[in-house]
Amino acid sequence: MVSMNKSSYHSSTRSCQMEVCTVGGYEEVGKNMTAVKVGEDVVIFDAGFHLPSVIELQENEVFQQYTERKLRNAGAIPDDLILDKLGWRNKVKAIVIGHAHLDHIGAIPYISQRYPKATIMASPFTMAVIDSILEDDKMRVHNTKKVVQANSIHKISENMKVEFIHTTHSTIQCYFIALHTKEGIFFYGLDFKFDNYPTMGNPPNYKRMKELSKKGVKVLVADALYSGTEKKPGGEAIAKHLLQEAFSRAEGKNSALFITTFSSHIERLKNIVEFAQKTNRQIIFLGRSLNKYVNSAISVGQCPFANKIKLIKYRRQINSFLAKIERDRGRYLVVCTGHQAEKGSILDRIVKGETPFKFKPGDNLIFSSSVIPVQPNQMLRERLDKKLRNMGVKLQTNVHVHGHGSREDLRDLIELLKPKHVIPAHGSLEQETPFIELASEFGYKFGETSHLSSNGKLLKF
Ligand SMILES: [Zn+2]
């Protein structure tokens, strides 16, 4: 790292080096973006929303009205103007995306026009979600888009190749991304949780990670969100077991049965549908974001439960279905949006009395989710839970395992890749610091081979 000490200062005069600009996501959970430059080529990794800032904006206004500038000023998208200051903006060859979560893709419609020569590269599912967001928000991007398969490698310039390596997380078709350069490999390790027994799709491609370690990984950026937690979160098979328990506890043949989860968690939705089928109720999916993600999964052949559900998107149809459920509540099982109490979600609208359906004592609601540990979400969910309990709804919360690896997963990642330098990301300073301690167990020295960064900082290797 150059900026800190004299000896490394000399290395900045070398003709070529690997420069990493930690644009966003290094001080908070959200607005992930990292840019890497070697020679005259730059690659951007992810361009996401800072969701708490987006929620705050949405509380007051219609979201589609926002401009790039307004979002940037609100801290809702990465402050990528730093790339102009560095003189990198016209050198960006590709914007490569790891997975379909909004904190990784949300800013694409707003910032990609700044890099017209850059090709946007993502998995079939991730690209389908990006396209669906653009369509819903009536926006366009003019960049070339390239759908890339897991475990594929692509030349993006004379001196750079980019490789997408299958990993597991909490949505489908998640990739680690390796940038092959003449300075060595830059490895982008966001987001992941190693699940060796996934209930949909394959386990992570450990074999390729080991191969890359032999080729020489120079820098690893890692998902350090839970680097301070020893206990493994558990794989999706554990969540499946929790769901089975929750369904067995949901009582009342004539009571309503609702379940809410992350709309992007296709694997979880598959497991929910599996148990929902056993209730012999008709399975209804309600809400805009569920539609977005489930239809994206259908469009790329990744929705094994497509013909087992009825998917309803538009408000008028939703209301007429909720009226039917109100009249015959034992007949349906509803999967809906609103686990974070998002404004305009189905649960939000029901508790505000804006729908023909009202919860009654004895109705069941399962939260197959956890509250995202940021202030606005926590506050909104507390309020929602209180209202629901006052209505007499039987709540089962936290029927969930999260999708970020713990300290053990990070240990495995370092052992697999044996990177020369490590940088924790995807968290606040407090969340990233335990990763530095972990790295020291492997002999990494803080300030020399392990680096704590912050938004907008430039590191040179
Ligand atoms: Zn994620």
Keywords for this structure?
461 residues; binds zinc ion; Rossmann fold; alpha/beta; seven-stranded mixed beta sheet; 2 domains; disordered N terminus; six-stranded mixed beta sheet
What does this structure look like?
With 461 residues, the chain is of the alpha/beta class. It is 33% helix and 22% strand. The strands form three sheets. Strands 6-5-4-3-2-1-19 form a seven-stranded mixed β-sheet. A six-stranded mixed β-sheet has the order 7-8-9-10-11-18. The protein has a six-stranded parallel β-sheet with strand order 14-13-15-12-16-17, with helices on both faces. α7 (124-136) crosses α11 (288-299). The longest helix is centred in the C-terminal third of the chain and has 16 residues, at 375-390. Residues 1-13 have low confidence and may be disordered. Zinc ion binds at residues 99, 101, 169, 191.
Question: TL;DR?
Answer:
With 461 residues, this protein is α/β, with parallel strands linked by helices.
Write the layout of secondary structure elements.
Elements: H1 6-11, E1 18-24, E2 33-38, E3 41-45, H2 51-60, H3 68-73, H4 82-85, E4 92-96, H5 102-105, H6 108-111, E5 119-122, H7 124-136, E6 145-147, E7 152-157, E8 160-167, E9 174-181, E10 184-189, H8 206-215, E11 217-223, H9 236-249, E12 257-261, H10 266-277, E13 282-286, H11 288-299, E14 310-312, H12 315-327, E15 332-336, H13 346-351, E16 364-368, H14 375-390, E17 394-396, H15 407-417, E18 421-425, H16 429-441, E19 457-460
Helix pairs in contact: 7-11, 9-10, 15-16
